[in-house]
Design a protein that fits this description.
The protein has 224 residues and is an alpha/beta fold. It has helices at residues 48-55, 78-88, 104-114, 119-132, 148-160, 178-193, 205-208; strands spanning 4-16, 21-33, 37-41, 63-68, 71-72, 89-93, 166-170, 197-201, 213-218, 221-222. The strands form two sheets. The protein has a six-stranded mixed β-sheet, with helices on both faces. Strands 2-1-4-5 form a four-stranded antiparallel β-sheet, covered by helices on one side. The structure holds adenosine-5'-diphosphate (ADP) and magnesium ion. The site of adenosine-5'-diphosphate (ADP) has 12 residues, from β2 and α1.
Length: 224
């Protein structure tokens, strides 16, 4: 297996509304190896989230090529893509995005439903991941019975439950107090130590310094 996990070639993304066109990404080329830990930094509106959405196969570029584990992703049909995303990519968002009416364990198990795993196995795997993020005693809590930091840990457990090739996180500590942010970063650091590839967006130097590589982006271009 090659060491290169992701390769973006000349990726441009233009959003077209009725009256204006916004070039959110401008000819980005980038290689990401397995087991990297990358922070993407840049001012508001520079294209960070757009880049993450494209990396996460949630959106398609206007032009360019995207290889994931050597496979051309832009030619995949919607079903293949959804399956690929479910198995290969774990997402963590600033606002946690947990379902409010189901308990932590079930939130974590959710991606396994789409992956077709039976209930017993789902709950076992979900509990395993909750343990990994230090929440074994919180499986029966609803999201609103957890602190922000705990909710984000549930979201990380959910992102991990399918054993994805990569974790993508958009400002994962943006809503957290600094001590909680540090706990989250420790979890990412440990996951990376175990070999997980991690890409996170942040605008805080304090957070970015946990990563092994920092990619700076401005006006849709990588500046270093
Ligand atoms: N769905 C969209 N439709 C139109 N323009 C968008 C959309 N999403 C983002 N943009 C624009 O693309 C640019 C980059 O946005 P974004 O990737 O969200 O930046 P960042 O995450 O760095 O703040 C901005 O000018 C933004 O307004
Ligand atoms: Mg953003």
């Amino acid at each position: 297996m090659t060491d290169v996990l992701i390769e973006l070639k000349n990726i441009t993304k233009i959003y077209k509304n009725h009256f204006i066109e916004t070039k959110a990404l401008d000819n980005i080329s980038l290689k990401i190896n397995r087991s990297e830990f990358i922070a993407i930094m840049g001012p508001s509106g520079s294209g960070k989230s757009t880049l993450l959405h494209i990396l996460g196969l949630l959106d398609k570029p206007t032009s360019g090529e995207y290889l994931f584990e050597g496979k051309k992703t832009l030619q995949m049909d919607e079903n293949t893509l959804a399956d690929f995303r479910n198995k290969k990519i774990g997402f963590v968002f600033q606002a946690y995005n947990l379902l409010p009416r189901i308990k932590a364990l079930k939130n974590v198990a959710l991606p396994l439903i789409y992956a077709g795993v039976d209930k017993k196995n789902r709950e076992e795997k979900a509990f395993e991941k909750l343990k990994e993020v230090g929440l074994k005693d919180y499986a029966d809590h609803f999201p609103n019975q957890l602190s922000g930091g705990q909710q984000q840990r549930v979201a990380i457990a959910r992102a991990l439950v399918n054993n994805p090739s990569i974790i993508l996180a958009d400002e994962p500590t943006g809503n957290l107090a600094s001590f909680q942010a540090e706990e989250i970063m420790k979890i990412f650091k440990n996951l990376n130590k175990e070999g997980k590839t991690i890409i996170l967006i942040t605008h805080e130097e304090e957070i970015a310094k946990w990563a092994k590589r920092i990619i700076k982006i401005k006006d849709g271009k990588i500046i270093n």
